[in-house]
């Protein structure tokens, strides 16, 4: 992340995570001895900090110092507890769950719409999805600082939590039988948006309450995911303002 602070070295990264420093992502040298990195990996996974394996050349480019095969980006934003937000907004919540969206600019645009419509939270999984980067922050036009961002190990975890509070979820799917405009969106709800090419994964879809499509009158197959998310959010806001 451009202009973000770096932490390097295995022990330094472990201490930062254990001290609850907000870390956006950790890069680990590909081929690093597994036994020497065992505690690091365990710490990252327990704290739901995303990480990936990269060539040593990338780490050398990030910092000229002795990185010991590990470099972490300190995040410019703070991440929130989804459980706390669900507890607070269980009667009027508007949660946006992003499943496998890999374009940081799409995530930024969705966060911008979420902030404009006063969404309760945007939820991003720690793997299989783009994370919050400088490009995300720029595209969100500051939205990342206005709407709570939550990270979960998997979106299924978020959906199970929402179900425990009787909060329904609706998947954006151009192949759905019902239009979004047929649904009552005035109660607490989670909107689930899928990846740019495959949509929402089957495992996540099975846990959701409904699927809905946006009407398309022109000769187009679908909307860009960030555009579709904006439409879902604004239809929700329209209904709530009307009621």
Structural commentary:
The protein has helices at 10-18, 34-46, 56-62, 82-88, 104-116, 134-139, 155-164, 202-205, 225-242; strands at 6-8, 23-29, 51-54, 70-74, 79-80, 94-99, 121-125, 149-152, 168-172, 189-194, 210-212. The radius of gyration is 19 Å and the shape is elongated. With 243 residues, it is an alpha/beta fold. The strands form 2 sheets. The protein has a 7-stranded parallel β-sheet, sandwiched between helices. Strands 1-4-2-3 form a 4-stranded mixed β-sheet. It folds into 2 domains: 6-74, 60s Ribosomal Protein L30, Chain: A (2-Layer Sandwich), CATH 3.30.1330.30; 79-242, SPOUT methyltransferase, trefoil knot domain (Alpha/beta knot), CATH 3.40.1280.
Number of strand elements: 11
CATH topology of the largest domain: Alpha/beta knot
- Bin the helical content: 25-40%
Total DSSP helices: 9
The succession of helices and strands, N to C, reads EHEHEHEEHEHEHEHEEHEH
User: Which term fits the overall shape?
Assistant: elongated
Strand order of the largest sheet: 5-8-7-6-10-9-11
Second CATH tier, the architecture of the largest domain = 3-Layer(aba) Sandwich
What is the beta-strand fraction? Answer: 15-25%
